[in-house]
Design brief:
The protein contains 10 helices and 12 strands. With 304 residues, the chain is of the alpha/beta class. Helix 7 runs parallel beside helix 8.
Length: 304
């Protein structure tokens, strides 16, 4: 039997295909489906019947109608082993309602996808959460009510408008609760926003093991002091600018002082992806300490 089904996001699934899946593939652990037929009227499609081993639910960019969200709502509420949820819905093919939240109203996504959670108050026990191309501008009012962020081990935010709103809310929440996060991925190449929101959030808890920050606009302002609570556990660190046409701007440029602090304080650091400080290529015969070779000697001494 299959353990994973990953359907292209633009490929609609018909009734026969779904019947085949739910009758012959009852050991699935990971699914990502395209636009769905209406599955709400037939009991055999209930996730509790054929998705009891599901661990990963990755929602598609395109859904057919609100009934797709009702099916995924039942997956979230009826699959006891679900631990990873990917939210990346952008388009609804039938209907005029917006999927995204606004400042005053909840979008169709949050209303339908978490309807059972809101009704029962029983939030899913997630370890990993992906937000991609999802508006988080009202997250304090919407997603924060239906997702237990304190129990998450991995949080990914990929090109999400309003991510700073969620980060600010989590920063406030950290005063009263303790986060279990071990990995954070933050990616932004769509809008200019202060990196300070991310830094404040990272400074509000401890024990992070993996951090990747990719920002087209603000990564140069990243201050590694916000990582001080994670130095005892941080093993993988990537700080970079989202690739663009500027070959000089692919990475955040650390100073020697920052690299020295990381190398001495982050005692379990195993992977460090940053750009070297700016250096001048001088005449090698002069033996100048600022030469290209001298930089690598100093880097080797710092990071050995």
């Amino acid at each position: 039997m299959l353990r994973e089904v990953d359907v292209p996001p633009n490929l609609p699934l018909d009734q026969l295909t779904m019947e085949t899946l739910c009758t012959l593939q009852t050991k699935l652990e990971s699914i990502c489906l395209g636009p769905l037929p209406d599955l709400t009227c037939d009991e055999k499609f209930r996730p509790r019947v054929w998705l009891q081993d599901l661990v990963i639910l990755d929602t598609p960019w395109n859904i057919r109608a609100a009934t797709d969200l009702e099916f995924y709502d039942s997956v979230i509420s009826e699959c006891p082993k679900l631990r990873t949820l990917g939210l990346r819905m952008e388009n609804i093919l039938e209907g005029d309602e917006s999927l995204q939240d606004t400042a005053k109203t909840d979008g169709l996504l949050c209303r339908k996808l978490f309807a059972t959670v809101k009704a029962t108050g029983k939030r899913p026990k997630l370890d990993e959460l992906w937000f991609q191309d999802i508006s988080l501008s009202a997250a304090a009012r919407t997603f924060a009510r239906v997702i237990d962020f304190t129990g998450l081990r991995y949080l990914h935010m990929f090109n999400c408008p309003g991510a700073e709103i969620l980060l600010s809310h989590l920063n406030e929440q950290s005063r009263d609760v303790r986060f279990a996060l071990r990995g954070v991925l933050y990616h932004n190449d769509i809008t200019v926003r202060p990196i300070s929101y991310l830094q404040e959030f990272l400074g509000s808890f401890s024990s992070l093991e993996y951090l990747q920050v990719m920002d087209r606009f603000s990564v140069d302002g990243f201050d590694t002091k916000c990582l001080s609570k994670h130095f005892a556990t941080l093993a993988h660190l990537y700080l970079g600018r989202v690739e663009d046409a500027d070959p000089e701007g692919l990475h955040w440029k650390a100073s020697f002082a920052e690299i020295q602090t990381l190398s001495r304080s982050a005692v379990v650091l195993r992977q460090l992806a940053i750009a070297l400080p700016d250096v001048r290529l001088l005449d090698a015969e002069r033996g100048d300490r600022g030469s290209f070779g001298g930089v690598f000697v100093r880097m080797y001494v710092l990071l050995r």
